[in-house]
Amino acid sequence: MEQSLVVGCPCIADVKDCLTKVESLKYAQEACYNGTLIVKASSSGLDIGSCNWSITGPNGTIIYVSSSLCMSSTATSFDYKALQRSDVVLYSDFSSCNTTDKFEDGNNSSGTAASNFSNISDDAVDLEASFTLLNNDEYMEEIEKLDFICSCSMDSVKSRGSVLIPIGRLGIILQLLERFALGLESENMKVPIFVVSSVAEELMAFTNIIPEWLCKQRQDRLYSGQPLFTHVEMLKDGRLHLFPAIHSLELLTIWQEPCIVFCPHWSLRLGPVVHLLQRWCKDQNSLLVMEEEVDANLALLPFKPMAMKVLQCSFLSGIQLQQSHLLLKMLQPRYVLFPEVLKRHVTPLDSFDYYSENEKLHIPMVKNSELDITVEVAVQLRYTTLKQQDTNISRLKGELLMEQGRYLLSVGDNQVCSETETKPVLHLGRIDLNVLLVALQKMGMNVTVEEARGDDGLLTASLVHVLEPNKALIKVTDVQTLISTADENLASLISQAVCTNLDCI
């Protein structure tokens, strides 16, 4: 039997339990999960509160780059500096899926040097790329689009038509409200503006209580005592009205046309937009403003024949694909993952790979783990240089802990082995079979060698048969060496030959 969403049902308790686990963060604020991962958010510039994420663990840092904008009239600007020098970038900006551009280096799209962004030094980060990425051409084009929407809306209102805007991006709504206020004032018209949404009041209040999420120009208004947005004054003098639903009694009381209405939903299938479209679709003076990504023919099918004017506009929703190369040039990651849907746009390079939904992806190790050791312990360590590797090694007894995303070695008192302390001998390394055979022959042993292979034909072990002075078998693998013999003296001699082939600590 299906459960309904009513007070007291188990699903409500589950939802409340989930909400208790939600933790809110500020930009650049670090949150530690389980002592292993450090999670931090930084502004993506797309809209108020939108962000990119960095996840730092003991083996490196993963950056999640969502849809981002380099310049914004409302939100905090894109903080790309917080994403620099990461190990892996998970690129998740899908705004270029329908583009015909190619992601490639304009100078050398197929060279290895172009694919390894981490090879660029801090002083050699391309300043020209930074300037190109942050240029205001696209920003000015966006402003012109908003001005054009306002101009068309004023024309409709002057013709006694209404304007319907089913756009959900808060930044676009706030900028249009400012332009409508100026446009109506310049035309000396008193036309009500309605925002009909279940979260309308919360959204408008939200813009005034978190100024650190706003662009610098808006923050400067706060410090000078001015309202952050024009809608604050519009609400006070009755030019702007907020309602949770279209059937609100107060809305029906003050409703008048022509008017300008912001409401969900962009699909034209849900919410107040359905009722308002049915009301105005036959009015040739009214205007519907839609985003260009929506299939207008399909969306407007239930409302045809349409006499209402339709204006479709595309707004910036992410970084252009060609600019992605400039962005990565500044971020300088070791490895980049692009979504599979962008594969036809991205030129294959050495440090790239593609990911798909619900599929595991193996990423090459890009960084060795780091271990924190206290100075007191470090000065007590006595190192031995390994024969087969240019590595110093020391023995101690302690506990390996994880704290704030880093490995920490906790060592108790007198746990570091000193030079004079007697301790069990530990041998390590890999057996060189030729060296072992020479050592055995010097001890007067007659030996033969046999290779053991698996079903796949790969070498699994080397078998050394000792024929004289007594029988013995030495099985050498990558992980162990096994000596089998009934003669204890012979076993001791073979063990000595094996140990001389290994490092001892």
From TrEMBL:
Keywords of this entry: Cytoplasm, Nucleus
Compartments (UniProt record): Cytoplasm; Nucleus
Carries keyword Endoplasmic reticulum? no
Boundaries of each Beta-Casp domain copy? Answer: 173-301
Pfam families reported for this sequence: Beta-Casp
Keyword Nucleus among record annotations:
yes
Q: What is its main location?
A: cytoplasm
The highest taxon in the source lineage is Eukaryota
User: Which InterPro entries did the record assign?
Assistant: Beta_Casp, Integrator_9su, RibonucZ/Hydroxyglut_hydro
* Recorded GO CC terms: cytoplasm; nucleus
Question: PANTHER family per the record?
Answer: INTEGRATOR COMPLEX SUBUNIT 9 (PTHR46094:SF1)
Protein name stated in the entry: Beta-Casp domain-containing protein
Organism of origin: Penstemon smallii
